[in-house]
Amino acid sequence: MMASSYNAKDEDGHHPGSVGSGGPGAVKSKKPDNTAFKQQRLPAWQPILTAGTVLPAFFMIGLIFIPIGIGLLVTSNNIKEFEIDYTGVDMFSPCFNCSQSYSWNSTSACTCSVPFTLDQPFESNVFMYYGLSNFYQNHRRYVKSRDDSQLNGDKSSLLNPSKECEPYRTSDKKSIAPCGAIANSLFNDTLELFYIHPNGSRIAIHLVKTGIAWWTDKHVKFRNPGENNNNLSIVFQDTSKPVNWRKPVYELDPSDPDNNGFINEDFIVWMRTAALPTFRKLYRIIQKKKDNMTPTLPPGNYSLEVIYSILEKRITKMKTQIKMLRFTVFLRSVYCQIHKLPELSMLKKENILILFFQLQNLTFISKFYLLFFCNYL
Amino acid sequence: MDFSTIRNLITRYCTGEESWVDSRTVYIGHKVPPPGTEAYIPQRFPDNRVVSSKYTFWNFIPKNLFEQFRRIANFYFLIIFLVQLIIDTPTSPMTSGLPLFFVITVTAIKQGYEDWIRHKADNAVNQCPVHVIQHGKVVRKQSQKLQVGDIVQVKEDETFPCDLILLSTSREDGTCFVTTASLDGESSHKTYYAVQDTKAFNTAEEVDTLHATIECEQPQPDLYKFVGRINIYLDRDEPIARPLGSENLLLRGATLKNTEYIHAVAIYTGMETKMALNYQSKSQKRSAVEKSMNAYLIVYLGILISKALINTVLKYVWQANPNRDEPWYNQKTETERQRHVLIRAFTDFLAFMVLFNYIIPVSMYVTVEMQKFLGSYFILWDDDMFDEELGEGPLVNTSDLNEELGQVEYVFTDKTGTLTENNMELRECCVDGNVYVPHAICNGQILPGAAGMDMIDSSPGVDGKEREELFFRALCLCHTVQVKEEETVDGIKRGIHQGKSTSFYISSSPDEVALVEGMKRLGFTYLRLKDSHMEILNREDEMERFELLEVLNFDSVRRRMSVIVKSSSGEYYLFCKGADSSIFPRVVSGKVEQVRARVEHNAVEGLRTLCVAYKKLTHEEYDQTCRLLNSAKLALQDRDKKLAEAYDVIEKDFILLGATAVEDRLQDKAADTIESLHKAGMKVWVLTGDKMETAAATCYASKLFHRNTQILELTTKRTEEQSLHDVLFDLSRTVLRQHGSMTRDIFSGLSGDYQDYGLIIDGATLSAVLKPTQDVTSNGGNYKEIFLEICRNCSAVLCCRMAPLQKAQIVKLIKASKEHPITLAIGDGANDVSMILEAHVGIGIMGKEGRQAARNSDYAITKFKHLKKMLLVHGHYYYIRIAELVQYFFYKNVCFIFPQFLYQFFCGFSQQPLYDTAYLTLYNISFTSLPILLYSLMEQHINMDILKRDPSLYRDIAKNSLLRWPTFIYWTLLGVFDAMVFFFGAFFLFDNTTFTSNGQMFGNWTFGTLVFTVLVFTVTLKLALDTHYWTWINHFVIWGSLLFYVIFSLLWGGIIWPFLNYQRMYYVFMQMLSSGPAWLSIILLIIVSLLPDVVKKVLCRALCPTTTERIQRMRADRIFERVETNIRDSLLDGIQNTTEA
């Protein structure tokens, strides 16, 4: 009976068959059950939004935000960031030569060094990022130009990569490994950092190149083909290197077999496409000193050595594009006293600090929120 | 080319020429007629298979798909899906294919299931055994193998397998009794007659010898019309031709009662039976909400196209620099490069369309349909609307119009059976001005003799006595009442109460029953119809027998019926009873004036009056009459017209006997209901076929007119004095002056005692008003407008003397007036069907006049009083529910898609989707679907009892107020604002900072997931804010779907899915959750995006609350008070207890 009442609406309602069924026998069963649900009388909570209920809620939320806001204020003052632009567009930039004269078929790499001075010490772990502006890693054609199963070590995909990789799928009739536009444009300028001791000597700062990619990416999502075969050159022998690369994938980090091939962390970091056209990616980590007494990067003079090595094509194409692409390096550390607060000290210091720093944008909102409350009350 | 024409052509080709013929010839028992009479053309008819199913096993998939894609929405999604398949689009075809597939499959399964049930029902019907007479023997056959011309034997309580012409019955008089309950709901037994010449063929052998053909019209759907002729060949002579009418035709679906068996011949079989022809689809009605929904859809389609256009144009402007179009790190393939720029631009446009197409979600249609379908159960389940007497609750014939119940502005109601009980009782009769009141009602016991009546006037003379008895006899004879005798049901009672109270009367007209019962109380008992003789027990307990010669049946055009009888003394009488307007013009003598005065007096009291007249016929006159009638009855074409003409000739020159007055009591709480409807801002019009005075009395009784209502009359009486033109202008001037002064009163603060008007119009005047006027002079042009203007200013309108079609005309007129109000028609009889079908919402009352109204209605209820709950509670709820549903759906999809649009500005207009495919697909299907569906089923912004108690709340939602453009724009802007908050909130977070403690970065998918998480939470919580009625189901669904989202995301990102060729979401969600700032920003963004709506709500409530909001507030306060008093009471109790101790 029910079905037909709905059905009546669509096309043809009644059908002769069901008409006869509503005889006197059905009368008894037609009486609806007197359940709360069917009578729409389920017990219910019936809140209404009035000033009386909303204001206390506002107040509660405000109270929660007050300590957070204070924390944010404190930490945001303790964040240190240093940015170096090494694009080399400027005539006086040390990298001007490299950006202008470097031709992509020259055999030797072009090196330039950018001096800079830190006025304040950088304490705790210092993260070193490279940044690119106006680089559309989020372009649709770019984002999909990869083969995840190839990167996951799948043998058949290695030799026959996905069509999405076009036009970076094959070269010289061999499949490219890793294929696709993302891999092809891998950022591999080499950046090194030297501390210029007041006595004039250059001390190389140890840059840690592991731990920059997501753990799951490195251990699960990316995998070298040929499980236990340590000799990657054999595994990759039927493939060809990406067109823009100078060396094949199995030579990305010959020194460390756990950081070579597809599981090279620089490579993995690059493969995680950025959300916006101006982005930063983690390059290296400068570990804090063991003794915890001297800052990781004491104030003084430093020098950034840039080896223009691989993104060579940019040179030839960059004449018109130069205003768009900008290469930067960031150094960042956070340090503040707040970890000494007893309730927070239980948490990992760094975690909280960065958390607070992240919310510096939000601080403004929280302050606004507080103000709003003061006025309201 | 249209399919039906092809089908027609094919059937024509296959079946030969006979479909051109207007009548068919049936050979009874397939016997060839005697040679020479007529060429024997074997005609082919369909077999008796009933096919109500639409599909067969083979054509189900193609036919069902074709039908589903005829819906414009499905077609749109199909196109999007195909575009996704063909061109290189940003989202995989799965995202729109899966929901579409889901919707199509669910619908297909539903329709398939229903069709399967229909198949089963068909099979049960088609295979049920019937008894067919072949070569003098009774043979069992499957029903579907029955052929036209087969002679069928049907036993008592069996259902007729096809349309049959009755040949003979087990009764000697060739009658049989039938109930057509399953056809039109009338449970009364109707008598059908066998043709006199065949009724003797009683046994199977005899019937087999019958040699006859039947000529009849081709099948037509009208249940009550049939014309045919039977030619009986006896002894190879010239055939005897006899007319066949609907009284000879047994319809499929009807059941044989009180008759042992019958023999009948099949004439219409299978899909040609009248029952099958009647089950055709009604025209579909669309609700106002659906219309505004479609308007919104068009707006959104516009938004969608303009978004895609803007992005395409910007893309090509931006790409003017070749390094942007194809930077060194991101090159195109050769084929892409070679494509023409126009083709590329077009593909880009399509790709943007695909990317943004979710703004018009598939799931909205599904949800709306489900809401309507499931929601309609609440009407079915409603205990308050269940009628214990009938044992039936309300019926929902269409769930499409649920919300329209909350939008009604005009209620058109029938009077008899709707406002009134249709439970008739004879109040008085008036013979030549002498009034008789039957008052002795002692459990139906007849008090014999004159003691049973009370004469108001002085006792009449001898002549008067004679007239009086003639009047009573007339009423005892002039009817079509049947006697149902209890003893046929229960054999034990036979003989004990013979002829006494155990027998009761059945008739299709309750007036007749009331009259006959009233006569019984006045001493004249109608006993039975036996062998064409009507038997009456008169006051002296003597049996009088009259031979019933002809019955001139009642019809609503003539408004009278007559019988011709022959008394035992051999005199021919024609008795006629009917409405006063149809009797008085035909009367030549009698005390017309006294009777007329009495009739008018009774009508004012709200009684239904009938006049009775008679004439004596001589034998010659009778013969002439017979001839006239027979020739009309035998006519194959225009039989009704010819009959009407014949009746007109016969029914004249009457002698007036008197009049009767039957009371029809008002239905329970009818006045209360009408008052509530008035308070709710609805205008109630009564449309009735009754006379003005009676109808007006009912209107006063039902509080449609109040004591101080000024009645404006627009009747033939007035228009006879003045021209229609003048009357109309007079009235409009009166009304408008009032209107003007009223507005002045409001300014001066004296609006207290304003006059309200009631209009009475009758059918004749109405048709004059509606008639397009010939003269195009300046002021005579538009009566319609003036009439509408008057009506608009009247609080109540009564239209009397309405023909059924005029009722529909009025509804149509109001529907088409310039405000386009929503109309509701309610009625119980067949004469209300046209109005029920015409109005926006048609409500049928399952009453005494059969089920026709209920069958054709959108909703059927048992009593008029249930209309109150139906409109004020159910309608109100449905409306606010669906309004929120529609607005919310658009809102949530703006929130969903607008960030994608914004993202295009940051990804080089490359159509990069912001969200992962799974999120795109499941957003509308599972993450946000259930809360709104359950909201739209459960929401009660105000308690049911308050809605019922305070009808003025209904005005709050009048005129589609929750779906007007400002509201729509508010919701859309809110959606855009929220989308901006999501997007730019996430944008600033990603712009310049890292997220995690270990310095690692997030990519574009994390960005999208962050936006999506905020989106899902905000959108769900927004609904939570709007929910006023939190049952456990709401809690379960709202929190459950949020939980489901989290669990799904964890699962979706937790595994390398082997069937996917990308693993972009791997661990994205978990990494995001491992970052503290992400948590904080999610919370903050949710709060920020909800804030404006909360502020708006609080401010609106505080500054300019609607009635609804005020009541909600009051209720909340009252609860608070109650808690307070409870506490105080318990405290006091405690104190008392302690002091006592």
TrEMBL record, chain A:
Record-level GO BP terms: phospholipid translocation
InterPro entries for the chain: CDC50/LEM3_fam
Topology with respect to the bilayer: Multi-pass membrane protein
Region ranges (Disordered): 1-32
First-listed, main subcellular location of the protein, grouped into a coarse class: membrane
One Pfam short name: CDC50
Any one of the GO CC terms: transport vesicle membrane
Location of the protein in the cell: Apical cell membrane; Cytoplasmic vesicle, Secretory vesicle membrane; Golgi apparatus; Membrane
Residue stretches spanning the membrane: 48-74
Keywords for the protein's UniProt record, in alphabetical order: Cell membrane, Cytoplasmic vesicle, Disulfide bond, Glycoprotein, Golgi apparatus, Lipid transport, Membrane, Transmembrane, Transmembrane helix, Transport
Family: Belongs to the CDC50/LEM3 family.
Xref: PANTHER family: CELL CYCLE CONTROL PROTEIN 50, CELL CYCLE CONTROL PROTEIN 50A
Name of the protein in question: Cell cycle control protein 50A
Organism per entry: Cyprinus carpio
UniProt lineage: Eukaryota, Metazoa, Chordata, Craniata, Vertebrata
TrEMBL record, chain B:
Membrane topology annotation: Multi-pass membrane protein
Annotated catalytic residues: D414 (4-aspartylphosphate intermediate)
SUPFAM superfamilies membership: Calcium ATPase, transduction domain A (SSF81653), Calcium ATPase, transmembrane domain M (SSF81665), HAD-like (SSF56784), Metal cation-transporting ATPase, ATP-binding domain N (SSF81660)
Protein name, entry field: Phospholipid-transporting ATPase
GO cellular component: early endosome; endoplasmic reticulum membrane; plasma membrane; recycling endosome
Boundaries of every P-type ATPase A domain copy: 129-273
Annotated Pfam families: Cation_ATPase (PF13246), E1-E2_ATPase (PF00122), PhoLip_ATPase_C (PF16212), PhoLip_ATPase_N (PF16209)
The species this protein was found in: Cyprinus carpio (Common carp)
Enzyme class: translocase
NCBIfam families documented for this protein: ATPase-Plipid, ATPase_P-type
Top-rank taxon, per record: Eukaryota
Enzyme Commission number(s): 7.6.2.1
The P-type ATPase C-terminal domain, residue ranges: 854-1106
Record-linked InterPro entries: ATPase_P-typ_cyto_dom_N, ATPase_P-typ_P_site, ATPase_P-typ_TM_dom_sf, ATPase_P-typ_transduc_dom_A_sf, ATPase_P-type_domA, HAD-like_sf, HAD_sf, P-type_ATPase_IV
Catalyses which reaction(s): ATP + H2O + phospholipidSide 1 = ADP + phosphate + phospholipidSide 2; a 1,2-diacyl-sn-glycero-3-phospho-L-serine(out) + ATP + H2O = a 1,2-diacyl-sn-glycero-3-phospho-L-serine(in) + ADP + phosphate + H(+); a 1,2-diacyl-sn-glycero-3-phosphoethanolamine(out) + ATP + H2O = a 1,2-diacyl-sn-glycero-3-phosphoethanolamine(in) + ADP + phosphate + H(+)
GO BP term, pick one: phospholipid translocation
